[in-house]
Design a protein that fits this description.
Layout: H1 6-17, H2 23-37, H3 40-46, H4 56-80, H5 86-107, H6 113-120, H7 124-130, H8 133-152, H9 160-184, H10 186-195, H11 206-220, E1 233-235, E2 245-253, E3 281-287, H12 293-300, H13 311-315, H14 320-326, E4 330-335, E5 349-351, E6 361-362, E7 365-366, H15 375-380, E8 386-391, H16 425-451, E9 457-465, E10 470-471, E11 477-478, E12 492-499, H17 501-507, H18 511-518, E13 521-523, H19 527-535, E14 537-539
Length: 556
């Protein structure tokens, strides 16, 4: 028989002497703990954190928010923390809350359905950049210690019916208390809520867990075969030169914001090579469809406009690439990011981010020049019209310093930490600007490659970024903020076009008119029609109003 040490025996006696809470009571304690400690972003956002400056009305609003938060967290926990996995699910809830609070408070992000989708589309390399020492310390302190207590504290057994009634009673009491406090000052509280509507995006862990369930349900529902989008898709205009074909390289940028391109007036020279490209067309005011790759990329290739866009609906119908392919254009996708987000599901594609090229690849990722490897040969291998999409890694954060070769480190010092919020903002911006400088070089190289083909084809390049990036302004970092609340830095994206002389002649485009059209407010919604117009694909999916370059084509 094993003999316990005196210390172990005392610990056992102490444990037996502790009150034995029911499962419902422990959930209430956990809910209060999470509301108080893991909602830093929410409380900061209210502006009601300084008790010395609060009046009676503000105190009531603060108490109402606290009770709603506790009630919502308890209701969620009561639904998911049941049965033999009770302690496991409570532990997971605490871990989720601590992790979500870290990203919300440090980066200013919101963990909603869009962000959950982003997480599911993130590869191991990107995820590794976000698993920082700060996050691990928070998990150990704010999740690890409470979970140890959770496993150590003895619980009082509950019959199934009595446990259910107890949970129901506590939930009703909490919601009733919140409603009662709200009623004491409903007029001021309702006005405050209208002015601070963004608060509804911050309850933690309620919003992250509910969002995860929504994404999971969408995933298991399955997606039927993509419905045919266009009844007709044919190449309609004859080539002006016998045998001449059209080649368009469409570069999908990553996390590039327009106001950090010197082409757009930025006071640093971040685009020196493009500024020396003759006849480069700059679209001045282009708004992204979303603030994350997982939304913007499928949206920009979808016939659905931003206001009507839904990821599931988009997956159920063909996109721009499918229409072009059925119109006789050879379409292919080359990726140096985390994938095409389903856009290239029915066209040939290459994933180059793990290529074994020692010049451009290291540590499981490649610089964007990998997209140009063998590009000229690929373009020469076809005989008909061709669209090649190049999907950049671009300026993806937070580790901007990893996204460009040393030769493009034009600005310094540079932040070399994965925790962007720990860096001096100047160092963070320096690293980001270097990524734009490198993108400038990659785009200029694409144009040079196309120029080498002008004798055998009409060639063009189109570039547009998927979304922008926050660099510490107003405490926000990275991207993925809800669109209605997102700053302009995450939505105003660069869009550029270059046409070889023969391409301009083939489409009969008036360059002065094109410059005027490019100055108009546009969005990702225009991309679908612009690209169809470049290939003269006749289809009922084409909308002439969206093709701003089509308005500049003469009939003669």
């Amino acid at each position: 028989m094993a003999v316990r040490s005196p210390g172990a025996a005392r610990a056992a006696r102490f444990r037996r002497a502790l009150p034995r809470p029911t499962g419902a009571t422990l959930l209430l304690i956990v809910s209060i703990y999470l509301a108080c400690t893991q909602n830093t972003a929410l409380w900061a956002m209210t502006g009601l954190v300084d008790a010395r400056a609060l009046g009676w009305s503000e105190l009531l609003i603060l108490l109402t928010l606290f009770l709603i938060l506790v009630a919502g967290t308890f209701t969620l926990a009561a639904l998911v923390c049941v049965g033999p996995l009770y302690r496991v699910n409570v532990a997971l809830l605490i871990v989720v809350a601590v992790a979500a609070n870290h990203f919300m408070s440090r980066y200013g992000v919101v963990v909603d359905t869009q962000m959950i989708v982003n997480v599911t589309r993130t590869d191991a390399g990107e995820a590794g950049e976000l698993l920082t020492a700060d996050l691990l310390v928070r998990l150990l302190v704010f999740a690890g210690l409470p979970i140890l207590l959770l496993w150590w504290i003895p619980l009082r057994g509950d019959r199934w019916v009595s446990g259910l009634l107890r949970r129901l009673g506590i939930a009703v009491a909490l919601w009733a208390a919140a409603s009662s406090v709200l009623a004491l000052d409903y007029k001021d509280a309702s006005l405050w809520a209208r002015e601070h509507s963004a608060v509804r995006k911050y309850p933690n862990p309620v919003l992250p867990v509910v969002s995860a369930f929504e994404v999971a349900l969408q995933s298991v529902s399955g997606v039927a075969e993509a419905a045919e989008l266009a009844q007709v898709a044919t190449r309609v205009d004859p080539r002006p030169v016998a045998g001449r074909r059209r080649i368009v390289v469409l570069v999908v940028g990553e996390t590039a914001r327009a106001d950090h391109f010197s082409l757009y007036g930025y006071d640093r020279q971040t685009t020196p090579e493009l500024e020396n490209v003759a006849d480069l067309l700059r679209f001045d005011d282009v708004q992204s469809c979303g603030t994350s790759t997982a939304v913007s990329v499928p949206c920009m290739f979808s016939r659905l406009d931003r206001e009507a866009f839904d990821r599931q609906d988009a997956r159920r119908q063909e996109n721009l690439l499918d229409v072009l392919a059925r119109g006789g254009v050879a379409v292919s996708w080359r990726d140096n990011n985390t994938g095409c987000q389903g856009v290239c599901a029915r066209v040939p594609s290459e994933q180059l981010s793990k290529a074994a090229d020692p010049r451009l690849c290291d540590g499981g990722e490649c610089h964007d020049e990998i997209l140009l490897a063998g590009l000229r040969e690929r373009l020469l291998s076809q005989t008909g019209d061709q669209l090649v999409v190049l999907h950049q890694l671009g300026s993806h954060g937070p580790s901007y310093y990893r996204r460009y070769p040393n030769a493009f480190a034009a600005f310094g010092p540079v932040c070399t930490l994965d925790e962007a919020y720990r860096c001096e903002r100047e160092a963070l911006v320096n690293g980001y600007d270097n990524t734009i400088r490198y993108t400038d070089h990659v785009l200029a190289d694409v144009i040079r490659t196309l120029q080498s083909l002008t004798g055998i084809a009409d060639v063009a390049m189109l570039y547009v970024s998927d979304h922008g990036e926050s660099l510490g302004e107003s405490g926000l970092y990275l991207h993925g903020f809800p669109y209605a609340l997102a700053p302009e830095a995450q939505k105003h994206v660069p869009m550029l076009a270059w046409f070889g002389a023969s391409f301009t002649d083939a489409l009969r485009i008036d360059r002065d008119c094109a410059a005027r059209q490019a100055a108009r407010p546009l969005s990702h919604d225009n991309l679908f029609d612009i690209v169809l117009g470049l290939f003269d694909v006749g289809t009922d999916a084409y909308r002439a109003a969206g093709d701003v370059l089509g308005a500049c084509r003469s009939d003669t």
